[in-house]
Amino acid sequence: MTTLFIDADACPVKDEAIKVADRHKLKIYIVSNGGLRPNPHPLVETIVVPDGPDIADQWIADRAKKGDVVVTGDIPLASRCIENGARVVRHNGEVFTPDNIGNQLATRDLMTDLRAADPFRQGGGRPFSKADRSAFLNSMETEVRRALQDATG
To answer: pLDDT tens digits, residue range 61-76?
Structure first.
């Protein structure tokens, strides 16, 4: 059975992910280390993990498998979930795959090193847009359909 896992800390597309999962009647886990109001939707289970680095990521990575979908912007978590066979969608609709995750990890590590070497080089990036939300919905629908095929195939 296909399950949706949402890495909920700083996730701007929880409602959109729930909407897609609801359309397909998928169990949904919203995982965080607190601060979120429980969602009353019957398919949603809010998981609050203890405070600590990467505890929510560990919870998701231990459970996500082939046939599941994970929503996260965390590249190391995405890598671990892909290794388990899960499909992974970033908040802006970008899909993490076995073919692109290595480059994503390398770029992340390079940027971490650059920021550490130059304290004035801080990230930020562009703001989340309506186009990102729309791209997420399209990617999410596609990846859920593929995950459902993975779960039965």
So the answer is: 999 999 999 999 999 9
Q: Which of 49, 99, 107, 58 has the alpha carbon at shortest distance from 81? A: 58
| pLDDT score for 78 | 96
pLDDT of residue 139: 97
Evaluate whether 5 touches 78 at the Cβ level (below 8 Å): no
> What pTM was estimated for this model as a whole?
0.87
Q: Which residues of the chain have pLDDT under 70?
A: 106-125
Rounded to a whole number of angstroms, the CA Rg of the chain reads 15
Produce one character per residue of 31-62: b if its CB has 16 or more CB atoms within 10 Å, e if not.
Answer: bbbeebeebeeebbebbbbeeeeeebbebbbe
Q: For helices 55-63 and 75-83, what crossing angle results, to 10°?
A: 20
d(CA 44, CA 37): 12
Annotation: CATH topology of 3-152: Rossmann fold (3.40.50)
**Element holding 128 (H helix, E strand):** none
DSSP state of 49: P
DSSP 51: S
